[in-house]
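The instructor's notes for this session suggest beginning with a concrete chain rather than abstract definitions. Hand out the sequence below and ask the class to guess, before any prediction is shown, which regions might be ordered.
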Amino acid sequence: MKLLYCALLLLISGCASRPVAKVELRPQPALQSSDNSTLRYPEVLHAYHLGRYVDPNDGLVMHEQHVVYRVEEISRWDLHPAAGGNYYPAFPPLDAAFSPAPVNDAVLAEVNSQRLATSQIMGQGKRLASSLQQLEKALQDSKTNQEMTVRLRSVVEDLRKRLAALEAAQVSTPTNLPPTNAPTGFDQ
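After discussion, reveal the predicted structure:
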């Protein structure tokens, strides 16, 4: 009977067992660099030179000149991969220059609308630059015209003064003067 139970137990255990998947564990390659400076940032220390001073906690104690060292930053892990190193062999870094941009209808529509807007802005900029050049030229012409107007007004004012002086001189001189060829009586 024992034999029957053992045979039955073997038969049942053989039917219920599942095949075990063979798992192969492979160690990951170690980092190529033996330099650990790319793994952690070092501590940052600063030295402070102190002169003679009285202790702020006890006025009866004076400290002589000495140096105090302070840890400004503790060491921490460098989470940025090195420029040439590949920390994750299973996930090589992607080069953005060789990977195509995701393209769908919405992206294409947005790119086209941005191109159209850019070309319109560029055209408006050219028109604005042209208008600005014309405005600068007109402003320069206006300044020149203003300077010439000021000069002409001063010349006209001078001519008016001279004309008034001539008219005043003509009124004050007698009209019955002898001709210039006639003897004046002073010629003897």
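Then share the key points. Residues 38-99 form one domain. The chain has a mean pLDDT of 80.
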